[in-house]
Design brief:
Elements lengths: L12 E8 L2 E8 L17 E9 L9 E11 L1 E8 L2 E8 L17 E9 L9 E11 L1 E8 L2 E8 L13 E3 L3 E9 L10 E11 L1 E8 L2 E9 L15 E6 L11 E9 L1 E8 L2 E8 L13 E3 L3 E9 L10 E11 L1 E7 L5 E8 L19 E9 L9 E11 L11 E4 L2 E4 L5 E5 L4 E5 L2 E3 L6 E6 L4 E6 L1
Parallel strand pairs: 1-4, 5-8, 9-13, 14-17, 18-22, 23-26
Antiparallel strand pairs: 1-2, 3-4, 5-6, 7-8, 9-10, 11-12, 12-13, 14-15, 16-17, 18-19, 20-21, 21-22, 23-24, 25-26, 27-28, 28-31, 29-30, 29-32, 32-33
Length: about 475
């Protein structure tokens, strides 16, 4: 008799440890269960606040004892800094260990007194807790701004109330400007005896015009120079002449003289010529200025490559001058080389059978031995032709050998009555088990009566049932 032990099953539990800041706890959790993490927390210190980020490693279903450690991001703890600034009090939150940035120390002046910030009391230090800083000021008598505007320039001075006012520039002083010369005659408003508040005084001038040069330039050389008073009409010069060119006029010539020397440039426009280029029957035209550099669209030795041939430029007819001398037509003169292409004959797997170099427009011809293909476990092969069909060469071309296939019977190399392989099945006709081994000697399957060949992968196997042994190829 046979007796079989029967068991009841229960999930095994493991110890999960949580290292949470300064606190460590444990829990027993069943295998395969996702443990529930406690809240990540860590007490802040005088300088630092801790914010939970994640558990490390990432919490996963239980497969054994595990320890998870809480990870935190740290940030500085903030404190209240109070600024007593004159009649205004403000506060700011500043992180521990940071040097607080003080506001501008200021206090409203009175009619007679100005308050100048001196320092903060106590001295500002890095934050270690709440703190109050008070602005301290020094006092001084109030001053007023006296502004002098003379000759387009402005000068300011700070003077105390009641001080006498004295002109900084003597009457008759001359200021030379780009457009005129100015002579100081007085101030507006009239100067007061003493300072009673902010005031601006502007100089009064008499004015006379200033003369400047007009320089006429042609082709980079000075053609003529005249002096003209500012604001008066500029004389019109006669047009200069230049062979083969048309004068275009004077540039930068205002109607009246500006407050500076000016250079007026006379320009010429060269006559335009039509240059025609004829390259292999194609004609293009250029409009080029007379005397400009003549640059051909192709250099001697440059090639034009087409599918049919390579054309090398040997000359231009007529010969090219260095510069444009008039309208002209130039023909490109070429030598021609017929172009050849690589024709490759290959098997379906890319193995090259034969390569040949064939001229453009010629139909290729295979001159090698008739291609063959080894039979496999299922088929034999007969050469049937090339793909694609041969046609006149117009570029590199690859032709692939094609084969017709004929089915053959595959399976065991010899058949015995006790081991039968047919119709996709392997049958064992003995009472002993049939063992199937790989060619490496590894037991693959054990068959009592029969099995489908589909259960075996492609390869070679050794079959034995203790009576017969055979070698079997699964295609």
């Amino acid at each position: 008799a046979t007796y079989t032990a029967e068991f009841t099953e229960s999930a095994r539990e493991y110890t999960i440890t949580w290292v949470n800041g300064d606190e460590t706890t444990t829990a027993q959790v069943a295998y395969g269960v996702m443990p529930t993490a406690p809240e990540g927390k860590k007490a802040m210190t005088e300088s630092t606040v801790y914010t939970f980020a994640k558990w490390s490693p990432a919490v996963a279903e239980v497969t054994g004892d595990a320890t998870y450690t809480a990870e935190f991001t740290e940030s500085a703890r903030e404190y209240t800094i109070t600024w007593v600034n004159g009649d205004e009090t403000t506060t700011a939150q500043v992180a521990y260990g940071v040097m607080p940035t003080a506001p501008e120390g200021k206090k409203t002046m009175t009619e007679s007194t100005i308050y100048t910030f001196d320092k903060w009391s106590p001295a500002i230090v890095e934050v270690t807790g709440d703190a109050t800083y008070t602005a301290e000021f020094t006092e001084s008598a109030r001053e007023y701004t006296i502004t002098w505007i003379a000759g387009g320039e402005q000068q300011t001075v700070q003077l105390p109330y009641g001080m006498p006012i004295v002109s900084p520039v003597a009457i008759g002083y001359e200021v030379v400007r780009t457009d005129s010369i100015y002579t100081l005659t007085g101030w507006t408003p009239a100067l007061e005896a003493m300072v009673t508040g902010d005031q601006t005084y502007t100089a009064l001038y008499s004015q006379r015009a200033r003369e400047y040069d007009v320089i006429y330039m042609v082709d980079g050389a000075e053609y003529k120079r005249v002096q003209v008073a500012y604001g008066t009409a500029i004389p019109q010069e006669a047009d200069p002449e230049k062979k083969g060119h048309t004068f275009s006029g004077w540039s930068e010539l205002p109607a009246t003289m500006p407050a500076q020397d000016i250079t007026v440039t006379g320009t010429f426009t060269a006559d335009m010529c039509t240059i025609t280029w004829v390259i292999r029957g194609e004609q293009t035209e250029q409009q080029l200025a007379y005397g400009s550099v003549l640059t051909a669209p192709m250099m001697i030795g440059e090639q034009v490559v087409t599918a049919a041939g390579i054309y090398t430029l040997t000359a231009w007819s007529p010969s090219l001058p260095q510069t444009v001398t008039g309208s002209e037509t130039y023909w490109a003169v070429f030598t021609e080389t017929v172009r050849k292409y690589k024709v490759t004959f290959q098997y379906e797997d890319g193995t090259v059978i034969l390569t040949d170099s064939v001229a453009y427009g010629v139909v290729p011809e295979f001159t090698g031995a008739t291609p063959t293909k080894e039979p496999d476990a299922e088929f034999t092969y007969t050469f049937s032709g090339w793909d694609p069909v041969f046609e006149a060469v117009s570029g590199d071309q690859t032709y692939t050998a094609q084969f017709d296939k004929q089915s053959i019977v595959t399976g065991m190399e010899e058949t015995e009555q006790t081991i039968v392989i047919e119709n996709g099945w392997i049958r064992n006709t003995t009472d002993s088990p049939l063992y199937i081994y790989s060619v490496a000697g590894q037991l693959v399957r054990t068959v009592v009566t029969e099995m489908s060949m589909d259960e075996l992968g492609r390869g070679t196997y050794l079959l034995t049932n203790g009576k017969d042994t055979l070698r079997f190829v699964r295609p």
